[in-house]
């Protein structure tokens, strides 16, 4: 079945070639084309953009769209081989490694990448998606934004699917869309990490999870499942939930309230390594020794965690491999080949921030 974008493009092209619109005739406005074809503005823009690149259409700023002299030989390369990559962040934490893995594979295949980040807000995700569609990228690799919350940008994702633009997700995926993905088994990995703390003799454990991302929700569920399988300890579990952008001082105040309890936690399981490093710094400021007084574990195997004092016990994240696998899958999608989603089963990285409870 012909997708919406192709329908608009082919319809306009046929009207031009058939002579319905002659050279230099003014074409209908974007709004009129949206109404005529019952499509969104982004579909019209993509179709018109292709016809402009193919020299069927030219634009006059503030004046509209007109028919180009399409009989003329305009022979110039138009295939930019540009891939859009949208992540929640770019410059810090594990993202440079993921992007590096993507770039290595795509560059070898002759593609360039266009980067954008959402700072984990839906408004910026929308701007990023619109920018990518306007740039006529050949495909998209997207890390979902606040993936555990309702997404107000479903119209754009529907647009991407209707246009059959090769797209896949990394780190998480929106279950309402059938795009392939590369992610991590966060639930089982966190469950294994908490079981490891149990094996070290810890029973009262505080879990701190970011719950506007599906990764955080799954990790929290893994924490809960570990306690469910040890019903005699279930009453000793404690959880703090927070969302991205939340004031860290309030988070530390909530941690302090747990530390003051009679059955204070002897270990803290953090949403990721970035948070774990902040928590360790906070505990040191409270004159608590890590791991002697309290153990702390993270998630993602952030490179800095290896050199932090104490070195951080964590769960591995495939990073470069994830980027490379995602890029390889996207190339297959561009070649109209079938792909299967990938879910990693990472190992615990045992270091010095978690020790046997005395």
Automatic annotation (TrEMBL):
Signal peptide: none annotated. Gene3D superfamilies: 3.40.50.2300, Winged helix-like DNA-binding domain superfamily/Winged helix DNA-binding domain (1.10.10.10). Keywords: DNA-binding, Transcription, Transcription regulation. Residues 2-70 form the HTH gntR-type domain. InterPro entries: AraR_ligand_bind_dom (IPR033532), LacI/GalR-like_sensor (IPR046335), Peripla_BP_I (IPR028082), Tscrpt_reg_HTH_GntR (IPR000524), WH-like_DNA-bd_sf (IPR036388), WH_DNA-bd_sf (IPR036390). One of its GO terms (molecular function) is DNA-binding transcription factor activity. This is GntR family transcriptional regulator. It comes from Levilactobacillus spicheri. The lineage of its organism: Bacteria, Bacillati, Bacillota, Bacilli, Lactobacillales. The gene is araR.
